[in-house]
Amino acid sequence: GCTLGHGEAKFGEPTRKLNILVKDLLRLGVNNKKAILANGLKGAITVQMHGK
Question: Would you say which domain of life the source belongs to (predicted)?
Answer without folding.
Answer: Eukaryota
